[in-house]
Structure formats: C-alpha cells, structure tokens
Amino acid sequence: MRRVIALSLAVVGMLVGGCASSSLREPRFIDDIRPVPPPMKVLHYSIQRKDLQDALVRQGVNSIRLVPVFENLSVTQSYSYRLFDVHEDSAYALLGLQTSDVVVAADRYLIKRPDQFPAFVSLLANMDEASIEIRRGGESKLFKYNFIPAVGKEKS
Fold it and tell me: What CATH code is carried by the domain that includes residue 96?
C-alpha cells in the first residue's frame, strides 16, 4: 500500500510540476514567442549594413553585461535583461541602445538567457530587417531596423 501511495504522489508531482528532466529544459519553441505587446512607441532605424559589420568587429567595444530583471515572475526566471557597459562605439549603440535599457524581446522572441541577445546582435549584419523591444525609463519601445546596402550600390 505504501508503494502505491508513493507512486501516486510521484505521478501527481510529475503532472503538476513537470518531471525533473523536462522541468530543467527550455520551454518549447512556441513558448518563446512574445505575446502581442501593448501599444508602444515604435522607432524606425535605417542602418547601413557595412556600418553594422564594422561595429561588430571592433575589438573591446562590443562586450556588454546583461543583468536579469525580476518583475512579475518567480525569482528563478527572468525574461528581460538590463544592459550595462554599452560602449558608444559599439554595435549596440549603433542600434540605439543605451546602458540601463531593459531588453525584453528580439524579433518577438523572448530573451531567456543573457547569451542570447549578443548572439542575436551578431547575426543582424546578415538580415534585412529586425526588431528589438526594450523598456527605457519605464516606457516600452520597439526599435525596428532596416539594414541597407552601402550607399551607391544596388541591391540585387
């Protein structure tokens, strides 16, 4: 009888809290998409792809710190990160980001780990469009980017 009760409690625990192996994994892909955010200010940027590529390869200026911001979630999860040490010659500054901005999502995908955002920024030079959702001074903003070829060259 004790074995049945113990097994039942283990099954209930797995159903309610998730089994140990699945609860440690990242959520499924669909869970990573940011729900449609409330209306916010949208800022449009047109950035030359060459300028972004040059900014990305500069040594020592593209290292930033991302610190979790715990709001409306448990203390073990954070889906937003505050930026620190944004250098004025970095790719982040070229994107309009500043120290103390809170990054919420990149192309509507939640930032769930601090290494995801720098990885996203490093891929921008290969994209035509992108967006980053931030909070600055308590106000939500959506930065929309259009990456254009160098002036004088036709896009093929």
Answer: 2.30.42.10
